[in-house]
Specification:
The complex is a heterodimer of chains A (about 350) and B (about 190). Chain A has about 350 residues and is of the alpha+beta class. Chain A contains 9 helices and 18 strands. Classes of the chains: A alpha+beta (about 350), B mainly alpha (about 190). At the A-B interface, helix 1, helix 2, helix 3, helix 4 and helix 5 of A face helix 1, helix 2, helix 3, helix 4 and helix 5 of B.
Chain lengths: ~350, ~190
């Protein structure tokens, strides 16, 4: 791969006249920007169809070297892709066919453009939502549905006129789905596919342990087809309000159980409730609601079972209470977080 | 990478993994999808691969630093992308390469005619910009980008070095970008000095 070493010629060379440079500057074309575009253009070519596995580190370095690099890359890729609609015969004939569709839709076009503006969704631009540690986030969607994200959670959304779809990237999200029979709302999470028409439910995926809790209406839950560690495709479980479906890669089936919805959904108000849950799970769950990480510093403490309510607003109280209930001590490591260790733990 | 951490690190490791994945997701999704789209040619596939990479990263459950996870994420994604490319047959690649690009611009006409019109206008502007360039440059770019010849093939056919072919292509792209941004032809021309 010859890479970006081609740089020596052409751009910003002494040959460029002073007048030319001034003219270019007037148009906002700085030599440094052109150089950035050149590097970006090299990257478009290097990555295209590349089966070279060693490029990722170099790519990351380039992206991180300057925050403007990635934007330049996207702009150059747009040029490359922009030529895509012309060319081979199949592409053309396809286009001609589509043009008639476009013509037929001409009267609708204005409303579609307006629709795009209202929706804020375009076929090519999916929406991404993500939260930081300690952050709860509520979002209204253009279709009238709403989402609530737990801390350290991520979800990608695609809403078009034809479908509504979301991919949970990790963490926990509550969906209140606006009824629309023609456009079911589909959530993908950790190998599961959850289909809702108009209902409210909560999906959580922490390191592959997925649970779907329904608080209103009902949803269908099934496995995404095939794949290692996934349940066989045909299984569909219908869960109604007050029920929870759980699944993890160690399980061969979807598991359906009853659940106290109010307790299960209290996280939306920053309140977590636990009943006889292992302390390591409790700490991991509470930690994301804390501005600083909380970790269990001794493996032996995992065996302890915690029952109680933890409020995000009063995490200090909870930590103090832990010391009273269990034989543990709290170690404040400043910006590195808070560790919970056995009271009489040996050093290290 | 697992052994260097003390027992205390074990609990932190799990924590870090969930946190790191979400941080990565927020901070690097754009760089990852751009990277994968360039490799795979379709944004749809790029997003699928990015998701798969995130999921695999979440499943790693190994201790590490954010920069290590970041490198991991891109490595996992790279391997997934290469797997996909290898599964595509050579025949598909030759016959459908341009078509795939067309589809990625407008994959479902009924779905989004507005998008198609925009894509069409952009393509026309790009073709006009290409026309403004010297014949040699135009020829190189056309053979490679529109007729699907590889860069070595273009070099052989036009009796140029591969390095020159690459340079022509890069500068054509810069020129077209500047023209698309509304920079006048003479100013854009000076910048690329073809």
């Amino acid at each position: 791969m010859s890479g970006p070493e081609v740089s020596q010629h052409g751009v910003g060379e002494p040959g460029a006249s002073t007048a030319g440079a001034a003219q270019a500057a007037a148009w906002g074309v700085a030599a440094a920007e052109v150089e950035r575009l050149r590097e970006a253009g090299e990257w478009v070519q290097r990555l295209r169809d590349s089966t070279d596995a060693s490029l990722s580190d170099e790519w990351l370095q380039w992206c991180q070297a300057d925050s403007r690099n990635l934007a330049a890359f996207e702009r150059m890729r747009e040029v490359w892709e922009g030529f895509g609609v012309v060319g081979t015969v199949p592409a053309r004939s396809r286009w001609v066919m589509r043009r008639s569709v476009v013509a037929a839709c001409a009267a609708l076009l204005l409303s579609v453009v307006a629709g795009v503006a209202v929706y804020g969704w375009r076929h090519s631009s999916a929406e991404l939502l993500a939260t930081r540690r300690g952050e709860l986030h509520r979002a209204m969607l253009a279709d009238g549905s709403s989402l609530e994200l737990a801390p350290l959670s991520g979800v990608r959304l695609e809403l078009t006129r034809a479908h509504r779809e979301a991919w949970l990237q990790g963490g926990q999200v509550f969906f209140a789905v606006k009824h629309d029979r023609s456009r079911p709302f589909i959530v993908h999470a950790g190998g599961l596919r959850i289909t809702a028409v108009g209902t409210a439910f909560d999906v959580r995926d922490v390191a592959g342990d997925v649970r779907v809790t329904v608080s209103e209406g009902r949803v269908n839950v099934s496995a995404e087809g095939g794949g290692a560690g996934r349940p066989p495709a045909p299984e569909v479980v219908q869960a109604t309000a007050g029920e929870r479906v759980t699944f993890s890669k160690s399980m061969s089936h979807l598991n359906l159980a009853s659940v106290d919805v109010e307790r299960a959904e209290s996280w939306r108000n920053g309140v977590l409730q636990f009943v006889a849950q292992p302390l390591d799970e409790v700490v991991a769950e509470v930690s994301v609601y804390s501005p600083r990480p909380i970790v269990l510093g001794d493996a032996a403490l995992k065996e302890l079972k915690f029952t109680g309510t933890v409020s995000q607003a009063h995490l200090d109280d909870w930590l103090a209470a832990l010391q009273a209930v269990f034989s543990v001590r709290i170690i404040d490591r400043g910006p590195d977080g808070i560790a919970i260790r056995a009271a009489a733990a040996p050093k290290g | 990478m697992a052994e260097t951490k003390a027992a205390e690190g074990e609990a932190e490791a799990l924590e870090l993994s969930a946190a790191a994945a979400s941080e990565l997701f927020r901070e690097h999704n754009r760089a990852l999808v751009g990277y994968l789209t360039a490799r795979l040619r379709t944004e749809q596939e790029a997003r699928e691969v990015a998701q798969e990479a995130y999921v695999r990263l979440l499943q790693l459950r190994e201790p590490g630093t954010p920069s290590l996870f970041r490198a991991y994420l891109f490595k996992i994604a790279t391997h997934l992308a290469i797997d996909r490319l290898r599964r595509r047959t050579v025949r598909q690649r030759v016959e459908h390469s341009v078509e795939v690009d067309a589809l990625s611009v407008a994959s479902d006409p009924a779905d989004d005619p507005a998008n198609q019109v925009l894509a069409r206008e952009r393509t026309e502007a790009l073709l006009r910009a290409l026309e403004e360039l010297p014949a040699k440059c135009r020829r190189v770019f056309t053979l490679h980008r529109l007729e699907g010849l590889t860069q070595p093939e273009v070099a052989r056919r036009l009796e140029l070095s591969e390095r020159m072919v690459r340079r022509y292509i890069t500068y054509t792209m810069i020129y077209c970008r500047l023209r698309l941004d509304g920079v006048p032809a003479d100013v854009a021309r000076q910048q690329v000095k073809l």
